[in-house]
Amino acid sequence: MKVIGMISGTSYDGIDVACCEFVQSGDLVEVRVIGFESVAYTDSLHEMIADSMPPRKVDMERVCLLDTKIGQAFSAAAQSAMKKFKFEPDLIVSHGQTLFHWIDTDHKAKGTLQLGEPTWIAEETGVQVLSNIRSRDVAAGGHGAPLVSIVDQLLLGHSAQPEGALNLGGISNITVAGSNLTPLAYDIGTANCLLDAAIYAHSEGKYSYDADGKIAASGTVDQALLAKFLEEPYYKLPAPKSTGKELFHLDYLIDYVGPVSSWNIADLMATLLELTVETVAIEVEKFNLAKLYIAGGGSANPVMMARLQERLTNCQVLSMQVLGIDPRAKEGLMFALIGYLALNGQPGQIPSCTGANGERILGSLTPGKGAFVLPQRPNIQPTKLRVIE
After folding, report:
1. Residues 264-306: pLDDT tens digits?
2. DSSP label at 260?
3. How many Å apart are CA 378 and CA 268, to the nearest integer?
4. DSSP letters of 276-300?
5. Which residues pair with 112 in a beta bridge?
6. Measured between alpha carbons, how far apart are the two ends of the chain, in Å?
7. Rounded to whole angstroms, how far apart are CA atoms 2 and 346?
8. Spelled out in words, what is the top-level CATH class assigned to the domain 2-141+362-387?
9. CATH number of the structural domain 149-323
10. Which of 167, 191, 256, 315 has its CA 20 to 30 A from that of 1?
11. Are 19 and 87 spatial neighbours (Cβ–Cβ below 8 Å)?
12. Are 387 and 324 a contacting pair, CB within 8 Å?
């Protein structure tokens, strides 16, 4: 089965598109990534998304505009990949762009909103589309995250020692797996979102991220401020748990550090990078992980990766690349896998990782140019995933 998986993450810098081909034999699923590309949002759409993120308030006109424009951008990204890689998918899976993730005062997920109207994709590509991926898990009592744990468990669930998979996007999330463990996954906290918010605000929109961590590398960690950041109550909550820009945003920084004009940006960036490293290290050490496989945008930050390797002296820090997965493509592959599972009548999440009260098939299906196309006979539920060249 050929599936395109697409996502724009909490950094909202563009749309990741993974063209994947799945073959299943028994409980083993093999996946080949035929092609991957990341398509940047236009400056105007990126600015509109940035100006609509929490804690900003928006009206329904803005929601409608974003839903349409993001849907059209995802459609264009899918068409670009189909043409570039000569790929004719059976299904397109679109996560869309998260604009709000509703966590109530009891720390339970009550709702989640991803924008990007899927009918634009279906209309313009003629391919059936699976979308609204997270909501079913939330409706079943889960957090709708981290869904990437389905990939991690299939890859690492048979390892003799406890191992972890870490995603460093806007938010950091971790999956802990092993042959003698019930899989566990949760959002750790901020990875890049506070770093991105700080540089974007300080540069007045000139820079949206710290390229190669150069600004952070030029600064000095403020240990007192780091200790203050580490007192954040979210870090002490039990898993499963999830978070996002509803908590970690520019106003959050200003409350801790003061007005933007007063910042020493190099020192602040160094401190925020160390916050990411330290919060990850605390969780890795809690489970005595032998290996940690890293993906996401942060895996391309040499300063962040070096600090993780220095800090985690008893854990082997590796790129997800050693398992055959381009770290940039992991989330796209994950949504493609969820689509493959959905069409085969199989759950796309792990209750012990999301907190849901049972396994669920994920997503809502929009028809392409014809009738829905489903497998004649659904495959059995897989327990292993192999990435092939």
Report:
1. 999 999 999 999 999 999 999 999 999 999 999 899 999 999 9
2. G
3. 52
4. HHHHHHHHHHHTT-SEEEEESGGGG
5. 101
6. 16
7. 17
8. alpha beta
9. 3.30.420.40
10. 167
11. yes
12. yes
